[in-house]
Amino acid sequence: QRVFPYISAMVNNGSLTYDHSKDGRWTELAGCTADLRNQNHDTFLAIRYSRGRLTVMTDVEDKNEWKNCIDIAGVQLPTGYFFGASAGTGDLSDNHDIISMKLFQLMVEHPLEDETVDWTKIEPSVSLLKSPKDNVDDPTGNFRSGPLTGWKVFLLLLCALLGIIVCAVVGAVVFQKRQERNKRFY
């Protein structure tokens, strides 16, 4: 169960949309509850992306202690993009005053194979999950791989047509039986 306010993370390569009616549940990688609302002190959120690991930590109790919220390994993000913040998720939205955003470039040692990668051209992804392009939203909350193929669509339509024919025959038989029963009483 989610308790709001809720912080969630998703990685998107442009093929996914945020489902406002379900608060992004189907595209969420991880999340946590953070009691940010109506505090008499400043609340803080720290987002760190380093060496393929995305972590989000909060300090909402005014104790100068960071609590882990999200920790996802295997995240690949390109460089050259922008940061944004939103409190809107659907019908519910909230007011937040963002006092500041501080961005730092971390100086970490990278393996030699990372030196040849053009980080501006990589596609956003998470290596432990399927590619966002492969995930198709399913109303049951599960993900199925890829769209329906030609044979699957044909079989689905054939079954639907057979079902309609069976319903029509049963309906006609029932209707005829009622007509015969009604004729006997005249």
Q: Could you explain how this protein is built, in words?
A:
With 186 residues, this protein is α+β, with helices and mostly antiparallel strands. The chain has two domains: 1-134, Jelly Rolls (Sandwich), CATH 2.60.120.200; 146-185. The chain has two helices and nine strands; from the N terminus they run E-E-E-E-E-E-H-E-E-E-H. The protein has helices at residues 112-115, 150-184, and strands at residues 6-9, 30-33, 44-50, 53-59, 67-73, 75-76, 125-126, 135-137, 143-145. Strands 3-4-5 form a three-stranded antiparallel beta sheet, with no helix packed on it. The longest helix has 35 residues, at 150-184. The radius of gyration is 27 Å and the shape is elongated. It is found in: Membrane. The chain crosses the membrane at residues 153-175. Residues 1-106 form the L-type lectin-like domain.
**Overall number of domains:** 2
Query: What's the helical proportion of residues?
Result: 10-25%
Radius of gyration: 27 Å
Note the beta-strand portion: 15-25%
- Reading side by side through the largest sheet, how are the strands ordered? 3-4-5
Offer a few descriptive terms.
single chain, 186 residues, Jelly Rolls, 2 domains, three-stranded antiparallel β-sheet, two-stranded antiparallel ribbon, 2 helices, 9 strands, 21% strand
Element layout with pairings:
Blueprint: E1 6-9, E2 30-33, E3 44-50, E4 53-59, E5 67-73, E6 75-76, H1 112-115, E7 125-126, E8 135-137, E9 143-145, H2 150-184
Provide a short characterization of the protein structure:
By secondary structure, the protein is of the alpha+beta class. The chain is built from two helices and nine strands; from the N terminus they run E-E-E-E-E-E-H-E-E-E-H.
